[in-house]
Design brief:
about 425 residues; mainly alpha; 20 helices; about 80% helix; membrane; transmembrane helix; galactose transmembrane transporter activity; MFS transporter
């Protein structure tokens, strides 16, 4: 790779770090807002819904924006939108209004959708398609290191002495309880102001960076011949099946990372001081998976083989969590990070392979599929309310079965 390519990879790596930090804050926000706003499981998982539904709503508009202003300006704009979303948390905290919090998360998600729409195809096309999973794995390491840090840093602020506070709230009258919850709600103000400042600064740096524009509409001769009679992105089965695989994958990834703290607390009676670290374990497991991917793909195993292994491991760990107990069960959910690590890097190039001039629209489909992180955690929350948090994990088993199918047969369908 050239020096210029390496510099571009570093810049995109910084962006993936931002994705990870902001996205995985949800694992702390879910139990935090559940207490501060007195919510049930289903209501608390609207945090994930508000964050990820923006991908469905904004993916195609993001593609249009990127076509008009280009990748670099689009990434800078995405960071500005995220900063605005962070600032929405200030009035939301002051009035302790859950709807305001959700709106702030949706605005941040809108910025993330724009960033993801630019960064994922950018890193995919920045080098040979055969090694795309390796480059995306490197991005994943940046993403998940940030994701592992986020719950630790924000958990120390937002979930501090939470078990004692919950016990205290039981014995307070309504006025005293409201005052305590208002003070709890105010904990987010300073961190989110700092976040807004950092995001704004990064937006300026990206805008004035040397990040080059890349061409995504070109086709080599073989692809051009194959696509000669293609008139729509809907004529690529590998993309459509890959989009569903991405939807299900993001759903189980978010379930593994965002539910594990609440599951440890409410499902296995583990103290908050211990439970708050389980999302970080999930992200560390993903980092290990990404490191394995950077070493083994494509030298020792193919992208599709990595996808097959991931599906099988997800099924095994999911069943172990459902039938296990205590710390073992919770750790199995955290270890799903290992099963999930190489799914995203493998689906992306397999789904986009051969699209040529349809690549931008195909990328928008995959970005829209990130809405799986909005829908499936809500289903999990509903099942947790109806049955219990442990049995609700049955939802992940068919998801991993489909991922296994796509890695075995689905990606070959033309």
């Amino acid at each position: 790779m050239t020096k210029e390519t390496n510099k571009s990879i570093i810049i995109i790596g910084v962006l993936f770090f931002i994705f990870g930090f902001v996205t995985w804050l949800n694992s702390v926000l879910i139990p935090y807002l559940k207490i501060a706003n007195e919510l049930n499981n289903f209501q608390s998982y609207l945090v994930a819904f508000a964050s990820y539904i923006s991908y469905l709503v904004m993916a195609i508009p993001s593609a249009w924006v990127l076509k008009k202003i280009g990748f670099k300006k689009g990434m800078s704009l995405g960071l500005v939108v995220m900063a605005i979303g962070a600032l929405v948390f200030v009035p939301a905290a002051l009035v302790r209004n859950y709807t305001f919090f959700l709106f702030g998360l949706f605005v941040q998600g809108t910025g993330l959708a724009l960033l993801q729409s630019a960064a994922n195809p950018y890193i995919t096309i920045l080098g040979p398609i055969e090694s795309a999973a390796k480059r995306i794995s490197i991005m994943g390491i940046c993403n998940k290191i940030a994701g592992a840090l986020a719950p630790i840093v924000f958990g120390a602020i937002l979930l501090k002495n939470m078990d004692k506070l919950e016990t205290k709230l039981i014995n307070l009258n309504p006025v005293e309880k409201a005052a305590e919850l208002d003070a709890l709600s105010a904990r987010v103000i300073t961190p989110y102001i700092i976040m807004a400042v950092i995001l704004s600064g990064l937006a300026v740096l990206i805008y004035y960076s040397t990040l080059p524009e890349i061409e995504t509409d070109g086709e080599d001769e073989e692809v051009a011949v194959a696509n000669k009679n293609k008139t729509s992105v809907m004529q690529f089965p590998n993309l459509l099946l890959g989009t569903l695989a991405m939807f299900l994958y993001v759903g189980v990834e978010v379930i593994a990372g965002d539910t594990v703290i609440s599951y440890a607390r409410d499902g296995q009676d583990i103290a908050t001081g211990t439970a708050k670290f389980f999302t970080s374990y999930t992200l560390v497991a993903m980092i290990i998976g990404y490191l394995i991917g950077t070493v083994t793909i494509p030298r020792f195993i193919s992208q599709e083989k990595a996808l097959q292994i991931s599906g099988i491991l997800g099924i095994i760990l999911g069943l172990a969590a459902i039938f296990g107990d205590g710390y073992f069960s919770v750790l199995c959910i955290s270890l799903l990070g290992l099963a999930n690590a190489l799914v995203f890097p493998a689906i992306w190039p397999l789904a986009l392979k051969g699209l040529g001039r349809f690549t931008k629209m195909g990328s928008s489909f995959l970005i829209m599929a990130l809405a799986g992180g909005a829908i499936l955690p809500l289903v999990y929350g509903y099942l947790a309310d109806q049955f219990d948090p442990q049995q609700a994990y049955w939802i992940i088993i068919p998801c991993y079965l489909y991922i296994l199918f796509f890695g075995t047969k689905g990606y070959k369908m033309k």
